[in-house]
Amino acid sequence: MPSDDPMGPDTRFSYRCTRCNSCCVDKRIQVNPYEIARLARNRGVSTAAARDAFTLDGALRQHDDGRCIFLGEQGCTVHPDRPLVCRLFPLGRVIDAAGKVHFLHYPDPHAARGEFGEAGVVADYVEAQGAGPFIVAADAYFGFFCRANQRLSADTAIAPDQARDLLDIDSEVASACAERGVAEPDDLDARMRLHIERLDAMLES
Questions:
Q1: Which of 57, 143, 35 is nearest to 95 (CA)?
Q2: CA separation for the pair 103, 85 (Å, rounded)
Q3: For residues 54-69, average pLDDT
Q4: What does the angle CA 102 – CA 103 – CA 106 come to, to the nearest 5 degrees?
Q5: Are 170 and 48 in contact (CB under 8 A)?
Q6: Pairing of strands 91-95, 55-56
Q7: Is the peptide bond before 90 cis (omega within 30 degrees of 0)?
Q8: How many CB atoms lie under 10 A from the CB of residue 164?
């Protein structure tokens, strides 16, 4: 049985997925703008179209039976671009008030039906899942929201439609590049960094 104790990068851990798909059912998978951009690129649509088609209240849509919208007969249909939460399962990544990162096992032991072990360490598992760019993006957006929370007063109102537009990478990157008279970067990580710059500039103004 997996431990409930917090784990660091060097904690002994391994997990072998058995493709039971239980992690793709009845899970609320919140996604940030970078993750939406990855899914949009995977599906060949704009980030606005992906947000409207694939998400609801900031999380991936589900079918009536609780299955993720991207779960197909052979498993995840967007596996190369799956969100960070999916990549880390059955681990969760937590940042405490001091900014220290640790990992926890998914709280429902019956949700992860793969094979647990100690063949490696947490850092090995995270790297093997290709989580690096997603962690960078998650931390960047988390940092922005912390800065926004500090800068914006309680009576500062941002209309829901305006907030949705600000968090749309395609539209914000297009506007930023048009203002600078430069071509839009194609690399999604570069687009994410430009988006964060744009959001921070909005805070300053």
A1: 143
A2: 12
A3: 96
A4: 155
A5: yes
A6: unpaired
A7: yes
A8: 14
